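[AMINO ACID CHAIN]
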Amino acid sequence: MPDAAAPPLRREWTPEFTVDLVGVLAPLRRGAGDPTWQRNDDGVWLVGTTPDGPVTTLLRRRADGSVLARAWGAGAQWSLDGLPALLGADDRPEEFVAHHPLVADAHRRHPGLRFGSSRRVWDQLVPAILEQKVTGTEARRSWRELCRRFGDDPPGPTPPGMRVPPTPDRIRAVPDWEWHRAGVDSARRRAILSCAAVAHRLENAAELGGSAGRELLRRVPGIGVWTAAEVAQRVWGDPDAVSFGDFHIPTVVGWALLGRPLDDAGMLEVLAPYVPQRQRAVRYVEVSGFRRPRFGPRFSPRDYRAM
């Protein structure tokens, strides 16, 4: 069992920009019940794997703009070394140029919007695969089930319910019936198992970054443009990795910028002026407060456990 009383490693960092701590870390959260991400009065808690072992990291922004990070576990030093990158120090939002009034307004109102880099492919790849072609409700439920049943207790004095994501070895040992119990269909299961078999190689995608990193991920069967982009946005803070193939994003972008729905081809054309920061433009649309018109019933979740 982890020693909750063990002293953490600490790092204080004062960025040259205003950090929106919750905003930059929010993309790492998979729903309100994510066992790897919690927020309370102490700050934001993150639990994950690292090349050195499991880690718990607690981050808190102080009134003077500095950030205090404390980390427990074998991966503590690795986590603290990556603190600036995690909070967007490597991002370049000042290079962004808006081409639509709505995007320009969101850019002005959200100066703290940055792309952080978690630097850890595996922890973001599994939940991204779980989100393929299902509702968010389904995917988040499966993520919680896998973490709770096959993840480990986190190091340090974490809030109740937090878990370390299951490692590649642990994932490869999950029996077929447990995948079914977690609500994961055969296609997503095969993709996750294929990634687990070469997980150590896929971590190189974070070093490559950009389109090269995305292409490395896409060499694995079951990893397409959408999944690679979702990982890239979070792991190396890729501001150009658009989630083409998403059920909602082209429609939202189309209504927000043109007043009509779009498909992927149309969104590609509309976002062309924003290269190499197309995903940043999408993020500004998402945080702008715009809501597209609704004309029909929402997509109903499926429960694969009952099939």
Notes: The mean pLDDT is 93.
